[in-house]
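for the writeup, i need someone to sanity check this before i put it in the appendix. the sequnce is what the collaborator sent (i think, or maybe the updated version? ugh). structure was predicted straight from it, no edits. if anything looks off just tell me and ill rerun, i have time this weekend
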Amino acid sequence: MDNLIDQLIIRWEKAFDDIQNLPVFKAQIKTTQYASGARYNLEKFDQQTFPSDGPLSSLKDNHEYGFSDQGVPCYVAFSHEHNKTYWEGYYKYSDNLAEYIEFNINTGTPSAVTRVLFEKGRKIATQRLVVNGRGTIYGHLKSQRTALINKIKEDTNALFLTATSFIYDQDGKIMRAESTHVTPGIGKYTSHDEYTYVDKQLDKIRTFDAEGNSRLTYSRNSANLSPEALIEKLAQSMAQSVTHTLQQYEMELPLALLELGFHYADNYLPLLGIQSQQEVEQRHLKGEFAFITDNYIDALIDITPFEDLFAQMESLMEEQDDMNIGVKALRRTAAILTETKLFGKIATTGDFTAFAIDWSIEGHSTEELTGIFLECGVQPDTINKWKQSNFLAE
C-alpha cells in the first residue's frame, strides 16, 4: 500500500509538466454544464457509469464542466472570486487507468490528483492526493519548481493522501477495501472497509480503523425513503438516543438549555452541551450570554439505533452536494426534544430549549439566533419573553 502512496507522489511531481495539456482536453468539449460546487469524483467512475454528485445546469455557475463526445467529463474550471484564485483540470481515460489532474492556475501547482486503476475491466485501486489550500501555499516559489516541490513534500501539513486497493469475491463483487491515509495533523494511518450485499445489491459498507473501531459509512436506502421522510425518521430516533444519553448522565436539574453542537460539512453527530436553570440564571445575572456553554458532557450518543439512517443521510448529502440536509436533521431533532421536553423523562424548565448550532459559522446575531430557535421548536412567545428580559438581546 505504501507503494501506491509513493507512486502517487511521483505522479504528482510529474503533473507539474501536464498543465500544458489543458488546451488539449478543453478542445475535446462537445457540451458544457454548470454547478455550484464540485460534481464528479473520479473514484466513482467504474468504466460503465460516472455519477454526478449533485445537480447540473445549463446556467452559468462557479463550476464549469466540459463533456466529450463520449458523454463523460473531460474538463473542469472553477474559481474563488473573492481571492481571485482559479483552477482548471482535466479527466483522462484509458483501458487500465483513469486520471483527474487539477491545477491551481495562479501558482501552476497540481492541486489535486485522483487515479483509478483497472485490471481486466475491474477497479483494483484508487489513489487521491489533495494539496492543502488547493495549491495556494508556497505560491511565492511558483517560479522555482524544485524548491516548491521540496517545500511541499517536506511540510507534514501540506498533503492529503489516500490509496485504496480492492479485494473481490469469486462472483466479482468487492468484499473488502484496504486504505492507507496521510492526513495533516494526524500523519499516516490505515483503515479498511467491509462490504455486505443483499440480493446481489450492495447493502452496507462498514469502515474499520487500525484499532478495530468501526462505523457504518454506507447503507442502502432499501425503504426508498424520500429526503423528508429520511430526515424525520432519523430525527425521531436521534432524539430518543439523546434523551437516553442524558438519562445516564448525572447533572443538575431542572435542565434549561440543551445544545446539539455540530461542525458544518464535517461532523453531524452532536456534542451535547447542558445548562441547568440555576446555571442559566447565574450567567444571566453576571451579564453573560447564557446560550453559549463550555459544559459539554463526555458521554457519546449511541448511534447504533440510527446508524443506517445516519449513513443514508451522509450519502444523500454527498449525492446532492447539500450539507444543509444534516443541519435540517439536527434542527428537527432539537425541535422534537424541545416540543416533548425530552419526552418527559428528565426534569426541565417551562421554557426548556434544545437547539442545534455550529457556533463557528452561525448564531452571531439576534436575528440569526431567533431563526435557529424557531426551527428548533421554540415558540415565538418564549423568544419575545427572552427579549423583554434581555436574556436574548434585541
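Residues 27 and 68 are 9 Å apart (CA to CA). The chain has a mean pLDDT of 95.
thx in advance!!
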